[in-house]
Amino acid sequence: MEEKYRQQPSNILKVVLFGPESTGKTTLSEQLARYYNTVWVPEYAREYLQDKWNDERKTCEPHDLLPIAEGQMRLENELTKKASKILICDTDLLETKVYSEAYYIGNCDPILEKYALENTYNLYLLTYIDIPWEADDLRDKPGEREEMFSYFKGTLEKYGKNFITLKGNKKTRLEKAINHIDQLLNK
């Protein structure tokens, strides 16, 4: 049953956009996929939680996290088969773990935590908070951006993840990301 949270084996390079809300992750995911002529994995939580908001006017609750994790991994595993040498992921289960802990007083479902730590990626692109925050139905922490960024960065450091921090405008971020991804592709 827990297999639905596990990555399928693959030889392609996997890159994750990682960071607080409204820091340009989706925009950069799309740009990188276009640049590398590959597919990108959207953030399943956005669709899931937008539907919940539209239907019930409710935001994320703890019982939503495992269905979100399952949907995210289903998308990633499906799109891995369609990717060409690199897969760009708008998020991963480690990000879901961070949000779980940030919103639910340090709590994270043990199943989510297990797979957040077991699933592997070649590079994390940590997006900084120097992009203006944009409101939508799901974003709710404009006053806590510095704290959230520190939490995301601390999580990558705690678990020894390979990451770089992206700051600046869209062009600068894209160029830095491409530079680091190319280094991995050329190894």
CATH superfamily: P-loop containing nucleotide triphosphate hydrolases
How much of the polypeptide forms β-strand, as a percent range? 5-15%
**Average pLDDT score:** 92
- Please, how many domains? 1
Low-pLDDT stretches = none
Individual helix count: 7
**Secondary-structure element series:** EHEHHEHHEHEH
What is the structural class? alpha/beta
Main CATH class:
Alpha Beta
Assign the CATH architecture.
3-Layer(aba) Sandwich
Helix content, binned percent:
40-55%
Count the E strands.
Answer: 5
Strand arrangement within the widest β-sheet reads 2-3-1-4-5
Largest β-sheet summary: 5 strands, parallel
Cα-based radius of gyration, to the nearest Å: 16 Å
Enter the CATH topology name: Rossmann fold
Shape: globular
Distance between the termini: 36 Å
Q: Notable features of this structure?
A:
single chain, alpha/beta, Rossmann fold, five-stranded parallel beta sheet
